[in-house]
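thread: overnight batch results

M.L. [08:02]
morning all. the overnight job finished for the chain we discussed friday. pasting input first so we're all looking at the same thing
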Amino acid sequence: MGQLPHLLRILATRAGGLLNDADIARDAGLSHITTRNYRSLLKLLFLAFDVPAWHRQIGKRLVKAPKAYLMDTGMLCHLLGYQSTQDVLAHRPELFGHVLENFVATELLKQMSFYDKRLGLYHYRTGDGKEVDFVIEGLDGRVVGIEVKARAQISRQDLAGLMSLEASCGGDFVSGVILYGGSDLVQLADKIWAIPHSRLWQ
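M.L. [08:03]
and the structure it wrote out:
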């Protein structure tokens, strides 16, 4: 059990990344099976959670690996050696996007729990690199895609993942959202909007 804090630190550096138990096991100095068992324990203790890959079409070239997150973004910052998200932004801006994505993941889980109807949280990634950080799917098959960007500017390239997701689920695609660091709500396409991070809590 003494390896658990070390394993948590490794997971903190990989928050929002695709899970590869073999790589994590190598970095942790543990066997593959022990690493998977410890990760299961961390999930049972509500310290970590996985977001599975979304896929519907059999045979479509989609990445099937889940993504890993920590349940507490404050703990994530601490494990990275910083006091807060602002500390991370000031000293390691290249890590801020991962920390922000982790925070959004935990907020989505929290807000989804308020709904009476069951919702599933997933991520989407194609074999050619198009991705959407989060996909929320209802039992009726309707889908919302959420992409997280730390920067304040949005480019047309940022729409590629959401447009690919829309094409994959057709009429079930309700809307796409790019959470970004700007201050304006902007319609980018018919069903795709850029929304400031702060709107997540409104």
